[in-house]
Write a structure and sequence with these properties.
The chain starts with 10 loop residues before the first strand and ends with a helix. The chain has 10 helices and 19 strands. Strand 9 (about 180-185) and strand 10 (about 190) form a beta hairpin. The strands form 3 sheets. Strands 8-12-11-13-14-19-18-17-15-16 form a 10-stranded mixed β-sheet, sandwiched between helices. The chain is α/β, with parallel strands linked by helices.
Length: about 375
């Protein structure tokens, strides 16, 4: 009996320190450079790949069963994948799910995203945890021809996310209305036909499910680009302001976003709610500072404590920067903290209905531990 011939690698992941990982490529062919992070979620790979907050990043999935439920347009968080690539332990097998309309590999290929399978993701994750999120180059060539030196050089040439304003790349081109609510069996996505409050959402890279949650909570949502001015926001006569999630360095996006937010805080008493990058934007506008994390928080199983009630929520997270709670000024209170490392996960103004959280209450890992935040926002706008 002859031994099986080992498969020739068709994909290569090169780290900036020269470490190489070989595996089997799927999805698109070509090459991509990005920051490498890892995500510990057991499901939701399509939502992760289409989350605009992952711009400039390649995602390592620590859970091995990726692709087994296929993909469906209903689960896209934006029109196309935003993450630069995907790293998995096992190659995707034939999907089995009644909602699936396409295989993961075909979906990635059609959208120009590279993926690599057959990787020791435990080893890779340990490296990220110990050394921080590395800069990498990922290449997929069906013939298995790789210029290793060029790949390492490309990884080293990647500028990193610090100082990058990526919100401008993923924000909407123009304003639009949103009335689609959260998915429910059996009707799917219903429309909000009787909204109680008018909300302007600033799009720094908004996930669709955040907008759905706002609609489900009773909001008539108008979405404006990240570059919207105070005057453009107030022209819609909103009852409240929402600051969305998004990618990149909050300090870079804050160069234009913070003065607008500060203007709204100074000139109005409107309720304001922020998530993820929106949380960081609000903190900067209130006088706090943000810091780059070693490897960030990425997963759907992160415990967060509400310090005011003692309640622990199981949350979804995706961020590489955090608000430095030591820099919060008087009148701004820390409301939530991560039970993994004690980092800040929420703030509020002591005298006004202005608050934000770092985690994603729309992502339903708990499954709905944090949805009350949307209801709190709507209730803060009055009767």
């Amino acid at each position: 009996m002859s031994l099986a011939t080992p498969q020739k690698p068709t994909a290569c992941l090169a780290l900036a320190d020269g470490t190489l990982f070989y595996g089997q490529g799927f999805g698109a062919t070509g090459q991509a450079q990005a920051e490498l992070c890892f995500n510990t979620a057991m499901s939701g790979y399509q939502e992760i790949m289409t989350d605009p907050s992952y711009a400039g990043q390649i995602v390592t999935f620590t859970f091995p069963h990726i692709g087994n439920t296929g993909v469906t347009p209903e689960d896209d968080e934006t029109g196309d994948p935003v993450a630069a690539g995907m790293v998995v332990k096992w190659m995707p097998t034939q999907s089995s799910n009644w909602r699936a309309v396409q295989q993961l590999s075909d979906w990635l290929a059609a959208r120009g995203r590279i993926a690599i399978g057959g990787i020791d993701t435990r080893r890779l994750t340990r490296a990220i945890r110990q050394q921080g999120a590395p800069h990498v180059a990922l290449a997929h060539d069906p013939e298995g021809n790789f210029d290793v030196e060029a790949l390492v050089a490309a990884a080293r040439a990647f500028p990193g996310l610090t100082g990058l304003d990526l919100a401008k790349d993923v924000t909407c081109a123009q304003s639009y209305r949103w009335d689609e609510m959260r998915w429910a069996w059996p009707e799917g996505y219903a429309r909000q036909t009787a909204p109680r409050k008018k909300v302007v959402a600033i799009d720094y890279g908004a996930k669709r499910n955040i907008l759905r949650c706002l609609a489900s909570a009773g909001c008539d949502v108008t979405v404006l680009p990240a570059s919207a001015t105070k005057e453009e926001v107030l022209a819609h006569s909103p009852d409240g302001i929402f600051l969305s999630n998004g990618p990149g360095d909050p300090a870079a996006t804050g160069a234009y976003a913070v003065p607008m937010i500060r203007g709204l805080l100074d000139d109005t008493d409107l309720p304001m709610f922020g998530i993820c990058l929106g949380h960081q934007m609000l903190a900067l506008a209130l006088g706090g500072k943000t810091i780059k994390m070693n490897h960030g928080h990425h997963g759907a199983n992160h415990p967060v404590k509400d310090v005011e009630t003692g309640k622990v929520e199981i949350t979804s997270m995706n961020h590489g920067f955090a608000v430095d709670s030591q820099t919060l000024p008087k009148g701004v209170l820390e409301t939530h903290v991560s039970l993994f490392d004690g980092s800040n996960c929420g703030i509020r103004m002591s005298e006004r209905p202005v608050f934000s959280v770092q985690h994603h209450p729309e992502a339903s890992p708990g499954p709905q531990d944090s949805f009350y935040l949307f209801e709190r926002f709507v209730n803060s706008m009055g009767a």
